[in-house]
């Protein structure tokens, strides 16, 4: 997919009309139409603003989807602002978005002693894309989903901070991360 197709798809997924997007970008509806038809492109400053307004990275907006895997837009991708403290480090991130990412695919086989999922927080979006911070490791999808659900509840309750509850304890090596199965 090209920029024009990506823009049209993202705009429609977010239920934004061409008129609304034009107003957000301070351009004419015809300009948005030209962008979506591939007969015109926004200036660099507008492109950056466009990625911010649509809450997607420039890579996701510009590149062919088969070359770049953006986390799927689902209810699991939370939005809002909340301070999140990780379990195994002293990292505290003011996140406007969190998402779960599987750590293995069909090219890499998972083993039972390593985390299967990771939770990432997005704190800023820059010209180069989203700044992602690893928040926690998870032994299985169920634990990661529970964490994400708890964060969503905290956001809905108006909480300003959240400490991870379901992340797995891990042992970090120089080039590896393993689940810490020792009882303390």
TrEMBL record:
Q: Which UniProt keywords apply?
A: DNA-binding
**Cytoplasm listed as a keyword:** no
Q: Which InterPro entries match?
A: Cro/C1-type_HTH, Lambda_DNA-bd_dom_sf
What does the record give as the organism's lineage?
Bacteria, Bacillati, Bacillota, Clostridia, Lachnospirales
Q: Does the keyword DNA-binding apply?
A: yes
Q: Which organism is it from?
A: Bariatricus massiliensis
* Record domain HTH cro/C1-type: where: 7-61
What is the protein's name according to its record?
Helix-turn-helix domain-containing protein
Family annotation (CDD domains): HTH_XRE
Q: Which Gene3D superfamilies match?
A: lambda repressor-like DNA-binding domains
